[in-house]
Design goal:
homodimer, alpha+beta, Aminopeptidase, Alpha-Beta Plaits
Amino acid sequence: MDLDTAVADQRELVTTLFDQLRRDGLDEPGVTRDPYGSGEQRAHDTVTAIAQRLGLRIEHDAAANLYMTLPGRDPTAKRVIVGSHLDSVPHGGNFDGAAGVVAGLAAVAALQRLGVTLACDLTVMGIRAEESIWFQVSYIGSRGALGMLPDGALDVRRIDTGRTLADHIADCGGDPGALRAGRRFLEPAQLQAYIELHIEQAPSLVAAGRPIAICTGIPGNFRYPDARIEGSHDHVGLPRRFRRDAAMAGAEFAMALDGLWQEYDAKGVPMACTIGRSHTDAASHGLTIVPGAFNFSLDVRAYDEAVLAALDRRVDAIIGGIEQRRGVRFHCGTKARAAVGQVDQTIKLALENGAARLGIPVLQLGSPASHDAAAFAAAGVPIGMIFIRNENGSHNPHEAMEIDDFMAGMSLLTWYLMQQSSTHPQSSTHPQSS
Amino acid sequence: MDLDTAVADQRELVTTLFDQLRRDGLDEPGVTRDPYGSGEQRAHDTVTAIAQRLGLRIEHDAAANLYMTLPGRDPTAKRVIVGSHLDSVPHGGNFDGAAGVVAGLAAVAALQRLGVTLACDLTVMGIRAEESIWFQVSYIGSRGALGMLPDGALDVRRIDTGRTLADHIADCGGDPGALRAGRRFLEPAQLQAYIELHIEQAPSLVAAGRPIAICTGIPGNFRYPDARIEGSHDHVGLPRRFRRDAAMAGAEFAMALDGLWQEYDAKGVPMACTIGRSHTDAASHGLTIVPGAFNFSLDVRAYDEAVLAALDRRVDAIIGGIEQRRGVRFHCGTKARAAVGQVDQTIKLALENGAARLGIPVLQLGSPASHDAAAFAAAGVPIGMIFIRNENGSHNPHEAMEIDDFMAGMSLLTWYLMQQSSTHPQSSTHPQSS
């Protein structure tokens, strides 16, 4: 039995599981797996049933995350976690999140088919509540598992039900009290690696014509959620040299950031900047009024803390120049920051080697989006991610992943697990010799 | 008696009249002379009382405009009208509009003091309802006088009272039925000139350190009151090359127009462009969403129809380029146009000559704003305008005109009337020989 055959044998498991998950979450158009609600719970139940059929050990933590463990030779060895989240946005796609859990279970089944026993425990993790749209808090499940939930998170309310996160967690058998006390289920020092397979949320793989990508990093960011430019409201006939047009200052700011991005693109340094919200004041704007106020939000993200720091300085310089040239004043308001999620270079290299061995063409890709893996990285756990080609983006019912591409990613995941979890990397578990 | 003395003798009349008008309209902060309402009516009553004291003939038309006539030697000769409006915006300044009527009455008094009888009738006109904020229709009084009110105008409602223009006109003794029938009080072919003195609504005279300006033209414009850019709503992590960011397209559009304006400024061709309203959609925008829609308004104005037409083509070309580069689509919606208000070159030259004779330093200035004079120009009446230096713009309580500057403008107006209305320009009415 070789790896290819063992993986191919899981195709039916994979398609059956995705189909069942789609039926569980169906909420036309698309699927809704509301976190700590019935949608997400049905996915947990379906996944648990498969894990039980595979003979895995089932556990839950205080955040009601699901752990499905295939024991290794040494129960005291640092374990590997393969996971992703099982919730979705409202009317989202079937693959965002769930693909990572399905891949973990299919990899377990392939390992079993190969008769391989890993050196350490392998845990497939079904993570709760990753989508921040519901509670406006990100990484609830993964940060809960790691004892890193932010202050006050348990008291926030789900935007649709109005009930607190604590109540929702209790509904699903969790223990909000333990979370409040900061107790953690996962001890970062005892984790060898956290590996997440996820659909790509941008069309880079589609454009490159490759089935999978190896993640080079998860972006950190700085954000101004609520910035404002103050100029002067004036008569439409005011000559240009007298104007202090706040919206024109906003336009210059946007174009300067776009130019900055083009400059970094040309250097091959990945980043992104987004002015998601921008507007003159509804109460004072009009066809014949030079706008004296302009509001905007800003998200600047990059994969390297030094790049982020440089961008931060550049943004400040751009603002200073515009203030001087246009006689306006920027009030940037609260500044939020998120650290870069560093990918473990050893894991990344192992995944690259694996793809080369398996003959899978891969792309090196900075994650366009945030993922639970970033919470593990923040806790000091070595992380790696595999992205699967996906048309039409995510967070919508039109996401479209080909099962062939998924199987390629799952195959690489299985190969990686065999390599990294074996005490003897060149032993009989090597696919070429099995 | 020379012109200087005759004009100087009117200083008390002028200050008394402005003070009374301020008291009539007082509505802290500033003054409110609501058109076809009690604020405007009090101004009409005050002005009428002064006109009666000066022995002028008082008339009203169907739009309740006020005509105060000083008879000339030949009642069949084409008459000259000196006028402006007596309404104001809510909490506006005391001089916007009223200064032109006060100047006309003071010029009449100066002519009487000089013992000059003009060749033709001179009518000082107190015009109704120029400020479009109240009925959202511009030039109601002047266009009513000329039989050029737009269709449906009589049925629009004042934004504060909710009552129709027709009802408001009837309240003030006007005849909405006659207006509806298109009857006109003023016959353009029988008017020699319409002269309007008005405060400047921008700080060009303040910046230039000159008391008055001779108007070189009233701008025409083209407008997109409600335009929209359509792109694609996407995830904040989407790489630049895949984005169809509607707001970024809007920023590029704004900056391109700003560049166009700088180009015209450098050539010395006056114009203005204003994006008064611009915004992403409140329902779909957010910190982590690439905006797929952006709405804006546009006003482009210039003083020459050929310049306007060229700007129109340039705007189209800018839009085409952005659509191609950014994968977005502009939906410009309704396009509104207003013709350029051409200043009569003979009148303009006469005013320039007069200023030179009187030793008043003047600026040549395109009107930043629209004025009743534009309605007269549209009807084919030769027009001229004199702007008075004014700090702090208009349409606000802080407008600040110095009486010395006003007296300089009024002096030029008086000189002009003596010249233009005399059948013998070099006769005894010439200031130098009187």
